[in-house]
Amino acid sequence: MAKPVIITCAPTGGIHTPTMSPHLPVTPDEIAQASVEAAAAGAAIVHLHARDPETGRPDPRPELFQRFLPRISAESDAVVNISTGGGLGMTREERLRAAVSASPEMASLNVGSLNFGIFPMRQKYDRWKHDWEPEFLESTRDLVFKNTFADLEYIVRELGGHHGTRFEFECYDLGHLYNLAWLVDQGWVGPPFFVQMVFGVLGGVGADLDNLVHMHTVADKLFGDDYEWSVLAAGRHQMPFATQAAMLGGNLRVGMEDSLYIGPGELAPSNAAQVTKVRSIVESLGHTVATPDEARSRLGLKGADRVAF
């Protein structure tokens, strides 16, 4: 029988801006509520960023994370996954601050550098809630999202070695799978690996089903039985790719970090609504949804009692 599907929800991220949706969680209370509701709807993992509560700009300060992490932990059993991607343009040290401070069960790790282009979204809006938004989007026309081999080594040694944190390895292209294999060959990370295949970001692999199948095939060759795989896709590709992942025996990620919509032209009213929709798809395919404890067991996590929040 197929294993239960692990659903990850990424409630806010560091890409979309407040102008784009009135439902995007910004304040600590909104991020906490969105996470708790997503967990109640069926998300086993919540993948978290923080934002300045006044402006909605991505913000790496640990004190902001500590305004919502304890509430999520108290009101749900979800695995908390803290981003080390932070916000585009942040330094490595800024991106790591929250995870090092909170010592979570899980953290994301982008496994390679890439051009990360969100500047086309600027063309869709004439008015902005905050002055920083159009400048932020346009800056990605000349931005390399830096994740060098030195960065990867530093992060896995710091978080993995010193905190026992395990990783959601975000792979935006085929070469990123080989970067992860290099980390494995160095002995710096061990199985089970949680490989998050990312599709549809300008600068990364396109949202084409052939790409999904090929990346899954290559990951099988590289990691065999030592990994769990998951899929996320940006924008309108979110639900179709989540469905394909479930059909192929994988796991999946939804949330407003990846898409603000729940259907064509329809803004998602909440992150929980996206989780509810994808859960209904998963269950209609004859699969079950993994609980947080099932996810912990399969991913080899240290447990919610060993975090710093």
UniProtKB/TrEMBL annotation:
TM ranges are: none
Check the record and name the Pfam families matching this protein. Answer: BKACE
Concerning InterPro entries, the annotation shows: Aldolase_TIM, BKACE
Please provide, alphabetically and separated by semicolons, the GO molecular function terms listed in this UniProt record.
3-keto-5-aminohexanoate cleavage activity; metal ion binding
Answer whether the UniProt record assigns the keyword Ribonucleoprotein to this protein: no
Q: Which UniProt keywords apply?
A: Metal-binding, Transferase, Zinc
Which prosthetic group or cofactor does it need? Zn(2+)
Would you tell me the protein name for this molecule?
3-keto-5-aminohexanoate cleavage protein
Q: Tell me what organism the protein belongs to.
A: Streptomyces reniochalinae
